[in-house]
User: What shape does this take?
Amino acid sequence: MIELNVDLSFLSKYFELTTQRLSGYASKSINEIMKEEERLGNPKAAGFESALRDPAKVAELFMLMDPQNRYLIIRNLSSEDLSKLLPHLNKADLIWGLKYFTKDKLMELMEELPKKELYAVVMQNFTMEDILKLMPKDELDKFLESDKIEKQDIMKYFKQMDYKDLQKFFTEYFGKEMAQEGSPSENSFNMLQTIESLSAQEFQKMIMDMNPEAKQGLIFNLVENKPELLMEFQNKSIARPMMLLEKPDILKSLQVLENEFLIKMVDQLPDDLIQVVATQIDPKIFADILIDKFPDVIKQIAL
Assistant: This one.
């Protein structure tokens, strides 16, 4: 039996029980009261079962506007049943529930997101340049070794480089003596020809030998021109900048997610905390769910 503070004036309102008559039922449950009324010939008492199938009346009788009453009911639900309530919470309530996780756990949960959603969260506060600056060197190298990156993609980057930047890169890698003393356009053509003529192995070595800043610039250009390459990074590296934020700012960033992803996160809380979060449910929606999915729970309250 679930003990709640119930609104006994509800019985007066719908079943014509006077206050004096109700006082005589002080030790009885609602169900016992209505059975006794039916036995005594109260014509409206037979409608009690029907009232328990009416969401508005259930919400009124069990005072579901009171969060304490909602909690007392919810804490009797199984883990599986608790999970059924989460899709009925609004986004603000789900985000509120995520505050119970530590910052480290929130990072773990973000890293489990699909990449598209993870980028959406991170990009609330950071740019792609920020992500690349914080990315480990081995992750940058692994990206540049992907078979989804073609030589022509990298050559496009070199071909659109500013002349001075191209000359600087060429001089650092090949040696100053290889830069021709012609016009900028002639020199650019010759430098690009030299780069493009490298064997696959030499070309790859050149890319791997680039300094971190140059690699970041190259990778930024590659993902800008071919956004599908964003999927090549590991989630942990994509999420890394979020560690720079305080927990409230992380929670704010998560508002960009659809509820289905927030629900999966909240569902990883311990049951006692999910009970607290689920208590935020709208009373009218909760009444509907009780009638539709948990009629046995209603009977436990009315016993």
User: Anything to note?
Assistant: The first helix runs from residue 9 to 15. The mean pLDDT is 90. Residues 129 and 220 are 7 Å apart (CA to CA). The radius of gyration is 33 Å.
